[in-house]
Amino acid sequence: MYSRILSLKDYKEVALTIPAFVLDEARLEEEMQRLANPYIQWEEGNTAVAGDIVICDMASENTRFSKKQVKFVVGSGMFQREVEALVEGMKVGEQRETVTEGGSIAVTLRAVKTRYVPPLKDSMVEHLGLEGIYTLRDYRDYLLGVQKKKALDVIRYDLLHTIENAVLRESEFVLYKEDWQLLVQQELDRCRAMSRREGMVLEEMTPEQFQGRIPVKSYAELVIMTQNNCWDSLRRYLLGCYYAQEDGFSVGESDYEEYIRMYCTQWHEEEKAAREIQPYEIFRFNAYCSHAYDVWSRYIEENY
Amino acid sequence: MAIQVANSENFKKLIEQDFVIADFWGTTCVPCRLFSKILEDLEAEIPFLNIVKLNTTDNPDIAREYGISAVPTVHFYKDGQLVDSHVGVMQPREIKEIIARYMYS
Question: Could you tell me the domains of chain B?
Fold first, then answer.
């Protein structure tokens, strides 16, 4: 490739407004409590309270409520709210009656199982098998990181867009027509391979055939869109290559082979077709383009 | 009753008796992870619920057979018959409403 960067705008100098992260303590606590879920035990009880499993015999003229050994969770709403409310506070062996729209119901409580949630322990965290996370403290920090990342993901796109626009606008590039033409050709070849896979000829595709696949109405529109996209992506690629030289990032054939394996698994595609749709040159080009985003993204994370 | 992991070999067997919630999910589907947590919470609250999870990425044939075109998709079976279904994440309250409608019928 002959194209190159003449002068580069430092992305760290781009003015960004990064909002402060606000922790959702309730959600964090809820997630911590999930640790205990696999260790919940059900113990024999005497009086039914909300959250207990109860086993009841019921008698009613309504067949839905004329059953023996009915099991439900009190207050869960999974059986019938009035009956569940009636059972709350009952002792094993006790009988109560209620009248609903469907008729009267006599309920006898046969058994109660009370939910016991054990206190959180480090061993529960260890059991998750998360690398480097062994204690409750570690897990809390991990969840905090996850929450932070999710919050960042909401604003990440806009911040990346701001950086990209500024870097592209304030840097200078020498772009060779030959490089650009090659990219356009590679991308159109890729589209051609994909359309061929579906029994179509790219150049002859109708607006209906493009719909839902590529956001154009004709081959001519596709060529224009590809030309525009490749102009921008060529500059992104050069930036990605520059950053890669700085931080040691590299992409090779082994990465490609791994990518093809994953592609085949994910899309249930045969290897030959996967290589045709995603040739090495495009994979490599896209990887360096993405690297520019990764570098900017890391910078945003570090400053969030 | 723990959440059971199904595959194309055992799926039919797992849904043929009682009331069963079948969660069709995909490996790379982010909402599926959220829904999985909702089901785990539900299982912790109602341990005798039959929940079956099928990974459609690993079992595309069975997903196709059951008409799954998006994930997560939830099927509710009563004695092997599909009685209700939903595409997308369901909230616990919505699931309980369906349980109340079919589990004890």
Answer: 4-102 (3.40.30.10)
Angle A186-A189-A190 from CA coordinates, rounded to 5°: 90
**Amino acid at position A188, single letter:** L
Give CA–CA dist B87/B69, Å, rounded: 9
Per the DSSP assignment, residues forming a β-bridge with A25 are none
**C-alpha R_g of chain B:** 12
Is the predicted pLDDT of residue A241 greater than 80, yes or no? yes
Contacts of A81-85 spanning 24+ positions with Cβ under 8 A: A83/A56, A83/A58, A83/A107
Q: pLDDT tens across B44-96, in order?
A: 999 999 999 999 999 999 999 999 999 999 999 999 999 999 999 999 999 99
For chain A, which domains are there? 4-19+134-302 (1.10.3120), 41-116 (3.10.50.30)
Please name the residue that has the structure tokens 């982010």. B30
- Indicate the residue of A34, A73, A268 with minimum beta-carbon distance to B46: A73
Does the pLDDT of residue A7 top 80, yes or no?
A: yes
Rounded CA separation A84/A91 (Å): 14
In a mutational test of the B interface, the residue from A34, A70, A78, A153 whose CB has the highest number of chain B CBs within 10 Å is A78
ipTM above 0.90, yes or no: no
Which residues of chain A are within 8 Å of residue B45 when distances are taken between CB atoms? 51, 73, 76
Q: Which helix (H) or strand (E) holds A292?
A: helix A280-302
| Contact yes or no for B48 and A64 at CB 8 A | no
The answer to whether the beta carbons of residues A126 and A112 sit under 8 Å apart is no
Which of A44, A61, A65 has the alpha carbon at shortest distance from A53?
A44
Nearest to B99 among A67, A70, A78 (CB): A78
Question: Is the Cβ of B97 closer than 8 Å to some Cβ of chain A?
Answer: yes
Give the CA count within 13 Å in the CB-facing half-sphere of B75: 23
Cβ distance B104 to A268 less than 8 Å, yes or no, reads no
Give the model confidence (pLDDT) of A96-130 as tens digits.
999 887 789 999 999 999 999 999 999 999 999 99
When CB atoms are compared, the residue of B46, B60, B105 closest to A76 is B46
Looking up tokens 């001519």 gives A220
SS3 for chain B, per residue? CCCEEECCCCHHHHHCCCEEEEEEECCCCHHHHHHHHHHHHHHHHCCCCEEEEEECCCCHHHHHHCCCCCCCEEEEEECCEEEEEEECCCCHHHHHHHHHHHCCC
